[in-house]
Amino acid sequence: MAVGSMLAAVLVLAIVIFVHELGHFLAGKWNNVEVRVFSMGFGPTLFARKFGETVYRLALVPLGGYVRMAGYDEEGGDDEDAPADPRRGFTSKSLAARATIVAAGPAVNLIFAALLFTFCAYVYGVSVPSDKPVVEAVAPGQPAEAGGLKAGDTVVAVDSRPITKWEDLLDVVVSSGGKALTFEVIDESGARRTAVVTPKLAPRYDEFGEEGESVFQIGVLRSEETQEVGLTRAASVGVQQTAGYSWMIVQTVARLFQGRLSAGDLGGPILIAREASRQARSGLRPLLIFMALISVNLGIVNLLPIPVLDGGHLAFMAFEAVRGKPLSLRVREYALQVGMVLIGALMIFVVFNDIVRIVAG
């Protein structure tokens, strides 16, 4: 990767992590908790400055961060952990306040993603499927390529039946029964020609790669159009895209546990860096959309009920709400150790996957 692209990859991860930690920090301040440290990154300190009661720290490795609040553990905490004012310790706050502080990190990640999607929709427009029977791309090795269809072709008729919109073309192919079809097309230069294409029966796949019903297909991609939208419509699109991608991540996690998706498809920091580098070379819009997707991922994954993650802490608080008192420090420490082992094993696994992808090309 070029140096500029690598910097873009690091910047994407650093910004998304900063936004996450900023959510915890602001919620802590809002609830009058003494925040001791706001750190971006791990490893040797590059910069540290104390403003008010908080030390703001920048470390060498920007792929992480944390917010340290006084009095986080009501049991077993040392004197340095104790807040100057007992009323400003984390555990002295109400259950609702503590849950708000913990949930604020993932919540701000989702808000940030919605803002990025909104910005891209407002500035660059919204891509919608075109109703025109124009071939955007031709899949290699598929009937369309074998029959001579090319990207940019406009289909005007199939077996002398006029084609005026994409749905007409789809209907003809799906109902073909697998017999050869004669396409009349106009290419990008305006030249008219014919192409004989024989549809083949093939399964449809959903966004998770799961196989669906088989239908007759020829292997062409529908074109898209860009529509300009106002700020209200852009905001609606931003929220819808954030909600849609969030639900997709939830479904992906569920399918992994069900064994319906392969864990080998998971990617880690190396894959993220490579993809961020590729998007940076493609332009600002793809890079911003990629950043929004990473922010959604970080927000939703952190809500999983796994100790160490924010969702794990929220699960502890849910038990506290039911029991009327917190789980014992011993139980929480044991759960956190298990969570650290699980997260560590997952990180090793996804990094291994990334390396295998690079070796395999």
What features would you describe in this structure?
The chain is of the alpha+beta class and 361 residues long. Among the domains are: 107-124 and 230-360, no CATH class; 129-226, Pdz3 Domain (Roll), CATH 2.30.42.10. 49% of the residues lie in helices and 22% in strands. It contains nine helices and twelve strands. It has helices at residues 3-30, 95-124, 143-147, 166-174, 231-258, 269-282, 284-301, 310-323, 329-360, and strands spanning 35-51, 54-69, 126-129, 135-138, 154-158, 161-162, 181-186, 192-197, 200-205, 211-217, 220-222, 224-227. A four-stranded antiparallel β-sheet has the order 6-5-7-8. Helix 1 (3-30) packs across helix 7 (284-301). The longest helix is centred in the C-terminal third of the chain and has 32 residues, at 329-360.
List the helices and strands and how they pair.
Elements: H1 3-30, E1 35-51, E2 54-69, H2 95-124, E3 126-129, E4 135-138, H3 143-147, E5 154-158, E6 161-162, H4 166-174, E7 181-186, E8 192-197, E9 200-205, E10 211-217, E11 220-222, E12 224-227, H5 231-258, H6 269-282, H7 284-301, H8 310-323, H9 329-360
Helix pairs in contact: 1-2, 1-6, 1-7, 2-5, 2-7, 2-8, 5-7, 6-7
Gap from first CA to last CA: 14 Å
Helix content: 40-55%
Query: If helices are DSSP runs of H or I spanning 4 or more residues, what is the number of helices?
Result: 9
Shape summary: elongated
Largest sheet data: 4 strands, antiparallel
Order of helices and strands: HEEHEEHEEHEEEEEEHHHHH
What is the strand arrangement across the widest sheet?
6-5-7-8
Strand content: 15-25%
Low-confidence regions: none
* Rounded radius of gyration (Å): 26 Å
Counting helices, strands and paired strands, the structural category is: alpha+beta
How many DSSP-defined strands?
12
- Give the mean pLDDT: 85
